[in-house]
Amino acid sequence: MKILLNLLIILSLGSVSIPTISARFYPNITITPPNLLPNYTNPAWDSFKKLAGCRSGETLDGLAKLKNYFRYFGYIPNNLSNFTDDFDATLESAIKTYQQNFNLDVTGELDEKTIDQLVRPRCGNADIVNGSTTMNSGKWQTTTSFRTVGHYTFFPGTPRWPDSKRDLTYAFLPENQLTPEEKSVFSRAFARWSAVIPMTFTETNSFSFADIRIGFFSSDHGDGEPFDGVLGTLAHAFSPPSGRLHLDNDEDWVVSGDISRSTLLSAVDLESVAVHEIGHLLGLGHSSVEEAIMYPSIPSRSRKVELANDDIAGIQVLYGSNPNFNGSSSSTPSAQERETSGAYDHVRAIQGWCLMVLVIAVSFLVL
Ligand SMILES: [Zn+2]
Ligand SMILES: [Zn+2]
Questions:
Q1: What phi-psi label fits residue 48: left (phi over 0), alpha (psi between -120 and 50 degrees) or beta?
Q2: Strand locations in the chain (E)
Q3: How far apart are CA 142 and CA 367, in angstroms?
């Protein structure tokens, strides 16, 4: 079952295969010697590309694997198994829900844009938990052709850290032996959330007693959510008050430098993933808003670390606002961030404004 709830089996560190070496970290990816570059593959999901164009009623090798993918992320009920390679009604329904959640045309077919989204590296947490609808699919308006704006979600039951826990501690799995520079990535990620809610996050050396426990693991690591090697799922985190944040030890994590100019096609920005997973630790689920931190996927060689208004609105429902928060998500990015992501953000901003104008226009028409 792909549900990351604190009710799941408590992680027994004694039975877990803890990596003896640290994950592959690249302090500055642009200077990575070519002979250190692994052969780029996406073994997890690249095979889905050959399914492009497949439609209902057809049979194609690989569709059973795709059904397992959809089950893993909550789009097919967990009690279904022994999948066939037939493009059946179950698969078509899963594809339609997925397309709603990722703002794609709801065709029910494996068109190119859907395949492109499916193979993107993403968070291992499910989009739909316990069969309850989350993201866009829970807000879909079937009576009109108008698609509502997706926004933040919570875990079932809306778990959050209790009022008595506003100053949380975090610790790193000692066996990972992270350097101060690697740890500082998480410190920055935590600071992005503490800037908008009245909570603090302090590092401690006591892994067993920390509220939040961060570790890099490879493949099966004892919680029923095995990692899958390079790309595919990048990390996952459990709902409050579990505090478990796990990252895939086999990713090519980048801790600094301009990742967009990386020569390593599988490079993943550690801070971007850390900010997202901390959102889960605090109680947020996935969002359909593409610019939101809580959007489930992130392309390799890209960086997204700023909380969007959608993230801030969601987390403040759970914990209220930090008294020092000025109400704006436009924090001042570093010069490097402006340089590397400015053009992309600008395009997104224009799209966002267009959507907002459309929403207002339709609202007036309805009224
Ligand atoms: Zn996630
Ligand atoms: Zn795990």
A1: alpha
A2: 24-26, 167-172, 200-203, 212-217, 235-237, 244-248, 252-254, 267-269
A3: 18
Instruction: Give the predicted TM-score (pTM) of the model.
Output: 0.80
Angle at 308 between CA 343 and CA 251, to 5 degrees: 75
Ligand 2 centre to CA of 223 (Å) is 5
Nearest to 22 by CA among 242, 214, 258: 214
Distance 242 CA to ligand 2 centre (A): 12
* Side-chain half-sphere CA neighbours of 213 within 13 A: 15
Distance from residue 102's CA to the centre of ligand 1 (Å): 14
Computed on alpha carbons and rounded to an integer, the radius of gyration of the chain in Å comes to: 20
Position of tokens 């796990």? 246
Contact 195, 322 (CB under 8 A): yes
- In 3D space, the residue among 102, 100, 152, 149 whose CA is nearest the CA of residue 122 turns out to be 102
* Cα of 31 vs its chain's centroid, Å: 28
Residues with C-beta atoms within 5 A of ion ligand 2:
223, 225, 246
**Cα distance between residue 163 and residue 170, in whole Å:** 18
* pLDDT tens digits, 22-33: 467 776 554 444
| pLDDT > 60? residue 342 | no
Type of residue at 222: G
Task: For the chain, give the percent of residues with pLDDT over 70.
Answer: 74
User: Which pLDDT score is estimated for 138?
Assistant: 64
d(CA 226, CA 236) in angstroms, rounded, equals: 10
- Ordered alpha helix ranges (H), 108-260: 112-118, 180-194
Provide CB contacts within 8 A for 79, sequence distance 6+: none
Distance (Å) from CA 74 to ligand 1 centroid? 13
Section 3-11 average pLDDT = 36
- CA-based max dimension of the chain: 63
Active-site entry in 277, 290, 291, 337: 277
The pLDDT of 154-178, averaged and rounded, is 96
CA–CA distance, 53 with 32 (Å, rounded to integer) = 38
What ligand has the least distance to the C-alpha of 233?
Answer: 1
Contacts of 5 (CB under 8 A, 6+ apart): 129, 155, 156, 238, 239, 242
Q: Is residue 291 annotated as a catalytic residue, yes or no?
A: no
Q: Which pair of tokens denotes residue 15?
A: 């039975």
